[in-house]
Specification:
Elements lengths: L4 E4 L12 H11 L9 E5 H7 L3 E3 L7 H10 L3 H9 L1 E8 L2 E6 L4 E3 L18 E3 L5 H16 L4 E8 L8 E8 L5 E2 L15 E2 L1 H13 L8 E5 L24
Parallel strand pairs: 2-8
Antiparallel strand pairs: 1-12, 2-12, 3-7, 4-5, 5-6, 8-9, 10-11
Length: about 260
């Protein structure tokens, strides 16, 4: 029987800029009595990657442009936050009070360019003045962390960085992959046979996002404090990949 096991690592510390995530993960794995095995995957919340990479910005240091002030007027957002939103985006697709839907500079569509206020403490100034940007290059972050963990444990691993995104056609946020290393983003099942011998024609499965959603259930969205999930039994063979393989080409995007 196929078994997929996900374990949230316990008592993971609050991350500060410059922290050694690989070392902290290995320590937490030891505490959980988990020895890494061939093919295991570590799923990390975007927030701890961003914090470790010092993607914190104090809004007091941001000077809004005229374009940012126009966005702020349409969305009701702080003009300084609107400025960061513009810097982090390729294009604004939709705006309404409280929300801007953008194509992030990394290529995916998300709300408010992934800029986060929650669980972002400052350095003694007003906490609400601090925001957290997405990692500069999540695929690279995942690859570097994988390299460090593999060197320490001597087995081949996968590493995935996830964030919470909304969806155009359903309510509620779900975990999605924004950085990958050592596991597939998609599995193309076209040409496979179903139970009745029918040849699949269009089935391409977003396996990284499926795993991201499962891990997100354990991470939670509020004060759970479990930003790293260990995965064993992922039912697809490892390979090199990138978050970009999950992005729908614009000429196939029926929602823009």
């Amino acid at each position: 029987m196929n078994t997929l096991t996900l374990t949230a690592l316990p008592d993971f510390p609050l991350i500060q800029p410059g922290d050694n995530l690989a070392g902290l993960i290995l320590s937490s794995l030891k505490q959980a009595k988990i020895s890494l095995q061939e093919g295991d995957i570590l799923v990390l919340a975007q927030k701890i990657i961003s914090k470790a990479e010092n993607r914190l910005v104090n809004l007091a240091t941001v000077e809004p442009s005229p374009a940012a002030r126009q966005v702020a007027e349409k969305t009701g957002k702080d003009p300084r936050l609107a400025e960061l939103l513009l810097r982090e985006s390729n294009e604004i697709l939709r705006m309404r009070t409280g929300t801007a839907i953008v194509e992030h500079r990394l290529g995916f569509v998300c709300a408010n360019a992934g800029i986060d206020h929650s669980n972002v403490p400052g350095d003694g100034t007003q906490a609400e003045d601090w925001v957290l940007l997405l990692p500069e290059n999540p695929d690279q972050s995942a690859a570097e962390l994988r390299k460090q963990l593999e060197a320490a444990c001597g087995v081949n691993l996968g590493v995935m960085i996830i964030d919470s995104h909304g969806r155009a056609w359903r309510l509620g946020t779900v975990g999605v992959a924004i950085g990958l290393s050592g596991l597939p983003g998609l599995v193309d099942e076209r040409g496979w046979k179903d139970l009745f011998g029918y040849t699949l024609q269009i089935t391409v499965v977003g396996v990284a996002d499926e795993l991201a959603a499962a891990a997100s259930l354990l991470m939670g969205q509020a004060a759970e404090g479990t930003p790293v999930v260990h995965v064993r039994g992922f039912p697809y063979p490892p390979r090199e990949s990138s978050m970009r393989e999950l992005l729908r080409p614009k000429d196939q995007d029926m929602f823009r």
